[in-house]
Design brief:
The complex is a heterotetramer, with 2 copies of chain A (329 residues) and 2 copies of chain C (205 residues).
Chain A lengths: L10 H12 L4 E3 L5 E4 L9 E8 L16 E7 L5 H11 L5 E6 L2 H16 L4 E6 L20 H13 L4 H14 E9 L17 E4 L10 E4 L3 H14 L7 E8 L5 H17 L3 E8 L8 E9 L2 H8 L9
Parallel strand pairs in A: 3-4, 3-5, 5-6, 10-11
Antiparallel strand pairs in A: 1-2, 2-4, 7-8, 7-12, 8-9, 10-12
Helix pairs in contact in A: 2-3, 4-5, 4-8, 6-7
Chain C lengths: L4 H17 L1 H11 L4 H17 L6 H15 L4 H16 L6 H19 L8 H14 L6 H16 L20 H18 L3
Helix pairs in contact in C: 1-3, 1-4, 1-9, 2-3, 2-9, 3-4, 4-5, 5-6, 6-7, 7-8, 7-9, 8-9
Classes of the chains: A alpha/beta (329), C mainly alpha (205).
Amino acid sequence: MKKVLNHTDAVVEEMLDGFVKAHSDSLKRLPDTSVVIRNDAPVTGKVGIVSGGGSGHEPAHAGYVGKGMLDAAVAGEVFTSPTPDQVLEAIKAVDSGEGVLLIIKNYTGDVMNFDMAAELAEAEGITVEKVIVNDDVSVEDSTFTSGRRGIAGTVFVHKVAGAIAETKAPLQEVKAAAENVIKQVRSMGVALSPCTVPASGKPSFTLEEDEMEIGIGIHGEPGIERVPLQSADRIADTLLGKILADHEYDNSEVAVMINGMGATPEMELYIVYRQVANLLKEKGITIYANWVGEYMTALEMAGFSITLLKLDHQIKSALSATTDAQAFK
Amino acid sequence: MKKVLNHTDAVVEEMLDGFVKAHSDSLKRLPDTSVVIRNDAPVTGKVGIVSGGGSGHEPAHAGYVGKGMLDAAVAGEVFTSPTPDQVLEAIKAVDSGEGVLLIIKNYTGDVMNFDMAAELAEAEGITVEKVIVNDDVSVEDSTFTSGRRGIAGTVFVHKVAGAIAETKAPLQEVKAAAENVIKQVRSMGVALSPCTVPASGKPSFTLEEDEMEIGIGIHGEPGIERVPLQSADRIADTLLGKILADHEYDNSEVAVMINGMGATPEMELYIVYRQVANLLKEKGITIYANWVGEYMTALEMAGFSITLLKLDHQIKSALSATTDAQAFK
Amino acid sequence: MILTVEKTIQWMREIHKRMEANKEQLTALDQAIGDGDHGINMARGFGEVVAKIDGTEYESVADVLKSAAMTLTAKIGGASGPLYGTAFLKMATALQGQEVDQQNLKSAIDQALEGIKMRGNAELGEKTLYDVWYQVADFLGTEKVEDWQEMLEVCQATIEDTRELKATKGRASYLNERSRGHVDPGSMSSYYIFEALATVIEMED
Amino acid sequence: MILTVEKTIQWMREIHKRMEANKEQLTALDQAIGDGDHGINMARGFGEVVAKIDGTEYESVADVLKSAAMTLTAKIGGASGPLYGTAFLKMATALQGQEVDQQNLKSAIDQALEGIKMRGNAELGEKTLYDVWYQVADFLGTEKVEDWQEMLEVCQATIEDTRELKATKGRASYLNERSRGHVDPGSMSSYYIFEALATVIEMED
Ligand SMILES: Nc1ncnc2c1ncn2[C@@H]1O[C@H](COP(=O)(O)OP(=O)(O)O)[C@@H](O)[C@H]1O
Ligand SMILES: Nc1ncnc2c1ncn2[C@@H]1O[C@H](COP(=O)(O)OP(=O)(O)O)[C@@H](O)[C@H]1O
Ligand SMILES: [Mg+2]
Ligand SMILES: [Mg+2]
Ligand SMILES: [Mg+2]
Ligand SMILES: [Mg+2]
């Protein structure tokens, strides 16, 4: 394992320390927690928005804290959902009396820990609502299983919910906006190389030079299928094909995200964007806005995901609203 | 070699195509060239600013094209300086009659190709000035050799020159501002893994699990010294130590850039930033602003560089000026 | 009385030892069908449990279990944190004010099982740690245990059974058919919990 | 007359063949002390030269060289593009309106050498392609060449000499002492240029 770090069990601590040092003009850390919040939280009259999850997905989640996006992000250990007490601290710190929305990615661990935090917060008299993001079309959508994972599409949920909350909309409205995005967003990813959890020191899997994993999540886990390495255009065809087959996009406007998993050069992301743009044009789908870069990573995994968000009037204006979150522009 | 691409000899072409597709609201490509320019170029009354270099350094250089930064970026093949005719096209396209400043990184190839372009442009009656960035303190500074390389500090030169040019300052003033930044900026980098030029298909060097290269450039070249892998804090100490020894920083204000080389997770960059901030604090040097992320990469190399820019009033206000360049915020 | 305060404390220490010793194994199992943090999580969690215990006086078995539950919930995170936290909390509640014999240990584990089910929404055969707790509860209900190693045989068989199952809950479920052929990491860590339990129960007082 | 239009065209083709055949070797040399693109650059550049030549009629040796010069400058980039572009342009200028014999070939290469020096600012012994051109010019001035293979022996010895030199110009200079022990990639590509030249000069008309 080759990483720039000091102690494998201090990575989250030191990263958060560096992060708030770098952005102390707009953010701070709640003392003795792994919670990063807006300097001005709680914002009077505004619904608080809290997200978070395991670390290793940087810039998620602290990079999305800021005016117009999250009020707080809770960081767990690498790839490990944060614990209920940490989430509770975040909820308490951002509640202005208008209630708090939790944006949770659909992983058993995240759901359970955030649920417990919500129960604890409710017991303290805070109104809490939750939305669960499950945008990964590579996973079968079934009520008998844990369902689909939440991956890069989560960033759009942050953005839209954050923008709506900034208008001082009530909790139910903010929640409805977030759920609308969740209904309209689909993603799928591919990995060319694994990643290494610092405390483990071993790569999450091994791939031959000519293999890739299709349908991966954001935790260095194996994907749905191991297939021969293909050209950028063919991979884009496959991922986009799965996404388009999963939702009704005819004549629609969309936002596109090409999300690097950590080690994929921007050069390659734009080569993928090119093909996605070509394919969508062919299909008569209009790209209203795009994001190409690293938004929801898996440490130093090589690979990327494609996210398509089908737009309506509300989502469009929320995407265009300003935010001073570090990692979204 | 595992890369997301179609044909190894089409990577630059397809990347540029994807890039301008993604950002067509503010940029375009000069037809049949590898030049990306602002949609509104040439801007009347404004000095034009052109930079560029080999590809593989994304978001450099096209990511810095925009209001308040570059008017045009010229892309060469991967790690290969662009040719004079391409640079000439860029110069011609951005000259509004106020002259053009070329921002060149100090590599023999870049210097020669941009020089030839400048000669051709002068022959067509365009006033051209050049500045040469050489911020890499790992290289000995000598008049008998090619001197120091230009690396991540170049981005600050783009920003400051771009901001000054945006105020419609005359060419000499823009040039002087750029040269002032060059005098005040120092950088040094480290690599934990090599990178692979697509057309070559072979990694630029091999490193053992417990080794790193200190004093690397941005082309996957070996560094000044191969040493055992060290902790984040010790690496930061070494790089920063070299930088601080090279210039007078007492009681000064600085801008800091922690630049990922391509595959280094943001987590690690913030762990480095933390130590840099601690060290500078100890030394009584004030951080006025910081940039942590990928600004000048070497494909998928793992590693990072530290850049310190000593500030004065002009640089400070130029750094704070707005820009709509994709990759700078 | 099969568990005393001292033995319960010792139970926690024995669990911790096993989680440390098998950290890599558990993590490797989790890499195959999960996200590769299970051993790290368990070692960290029970490390914290032991650290907490070291500085505290306890009145009852239930107190020790409750303390462990709180620590696990607050220090593990992920899926296993809430699940084991809930399991130990339910055991603590079940054993409140009681001395521990096989019978109320069985009730305690029944309660833990209910807690796991409530939290994780899993059923038998979904390739999760629920499977191991279910079979242990079942085993404790069937006969008077003389040899606690028999409980471990039950666990071992269950773990082996998880191998060929298709996961339908937890992270491994995303792999669908590809989840077959690998032992469930959480079932394995549960095995170490019961192995530690058998060890302390069989210890001389 | 040692070079005709046809032979000059053939020279370009022979160079191209060699650059393609040795693309990996040149790139590997450049990986050791540069940025690993030299073989790719040279193969691309002379590929373009040949493509251009295929569609064009030439009147004179100078015309062919000038066409090659323009293409190299416009299609290679990096350090080698301007350097080889300049070298061929200077040769073209020197040979303008002339038939080519050893004497004016020598003058042409002298001019190329001056051009390289002007562009690259290198001197003898700085571990660059300048070294090879310098020794070739020197060799052509000393005696009437009967066997063109002798020129290649001179080149080979020079390349070998670059191995132990410390680079003070170009990318390899950043490596300082670490640049020793590796042959200069540009010197190697220059060798192929002169090897191709010897081949066409010795060809039957
Ligand atoms: N819904 C569930 N019900 C019961 N146990 C579960 C459930 N989801 C996961 N588990 C257990 O948790 C284990 C994984 O724990 P761990 O790796 O620590 O958490 P995470 O999956 O969040 O990384 C699995 O091996 C499985 O036994
Ligand atoms: N200043 C110089 N003068 C003469 N030759 C040079 C100079 N700098 C570099 N070279 C030659 O160019 C070669 C490198 O060419 P190439 O790899 O194509 O360009 P780059 O260094 O820009 O990647 C070196 O091996 C050397 O022979
Ligand atoms: Mg986990
Ligand atoms: Mg080069
Ligand atoms: Mg796990
Ligand atoms: Mg080179």
